[in-house]
Amino acid sequence: MSTPLIELKNIEKHFGSVIALNGVSISVYPGECHCLLGDNGAGKSTFIKTMAGVHQPTRGEIFMDGQQVVFNTARDAIEAGIATVYQDLAMIPLMSVTRNFWMGREPLRSVGPLKFIDFEMANRVTMEEMDRMGIHLREPSQAVGTLSGGERQTVAIARSVYFGAKILILDEPTSALGVRQTSNVLATIDKVRKKGIGVVFISHNVRHALAVGDRFTVLNRGQTLGTAKRGEIEAEELQDMMAGGKELAQLEGSLGGTV
Ligand SMILES: Nc1ncnc2c1ncn2[C@@H]1O[C@H](COP(=O)(O)OP(=O)(O)OP(=O)(O)O)[C@@H](O)[C@H]1O
Ligand SMILES: [Mg+2]
Fold this sequence. Notes:
Blueprint: E1 6-15, E2 18-28, E3 33-38, H1 44-51, E4 59-64, E5 67-69, H2 74-79, E6 82-85, H3 97-102, E7 108-111, E8 114-117, H4 119-132, H5 149-162, E9 167-171, H6 179-194, E10 198-203, H7 206-212, E11 215-220, E12 223-229, H8 235-243, H9 245-255
Parallel strand pairs: 3-10, 3-11, 6-9, 9-10
Antiparallel strand pairs: 1-2, 1-4, 4-5, 7-8, 11-12
Helix pairs in contact: 4-5, 5-6, 8-9
Bound molecules: adenosine-5'-triphosphate and magnesium ion.
The site of adenosine-5'-triphosphate has 11 residues, from strand 2 and helix 1.
GO molecular function: ATP binding
Pfam families: ABC_tran (PF00005)
Domain ABC transporter: 6-246
């Protein structure tokens, strides 16, 4: 394989006496969807925030294209091409799809000494980029709040891709969605991967992960339980690893059924 786009080695993160991450390593290759699975409190959000420069690791190293990097701030990571779509999305529901797409990066046009937002261009690009992701907007001036959850995720993803992300981190993009919207988002992830972007897909849901993932890393209590390739692992095994297999088997025994 080629050099990973990003590689994190032995990441530890302590919050006072709490050890949230205790030696986590993953790599992400161009065009790969790498799924990060783990139960509540496993350390998934802490890990991606470390990748995104929001947290600084207590120990461990980060490499991009084989070169060591240090992110002191979230801006450092964004400038290096790491885009993160958080679950709460950071969108303004009452503002238009176009305004949300461009937020803070609006294209300007000059009329004499004055500068105006070039809405004609902004609307056109927003429509084109959403089309590319398979969402055909009737009207880019419609409020983001009127879109479905899956469509809103797609706005956030399309925006990251348009602004040049090399690595796209998605924190549980499908957890609040119904079946059809979930498949839309999974199809979007597939399109993004085909552009050569490395996708890190965080999920609780083994079926969603298996539908698009190329590799799977399971986190449990701040540690990596291993990385498997597509085809090497089955849903049940992943589920067991996430839940800490034995505990679940015991519970199943005592309840006399399937959990
Ligand atoms: N800022 C913080 N200060 C102290 N402890 C923290 C902080 N952030 C996270 N932790 C702890 O680190 C551990 C991992 O939390 P994290 O949010 O990364 O888990 P997660 O896998 O994202 O869980 P979930 O699926 O519930 O979102 C938890 O025990 C949590 O309480
Ligand atoms: Mg989390």
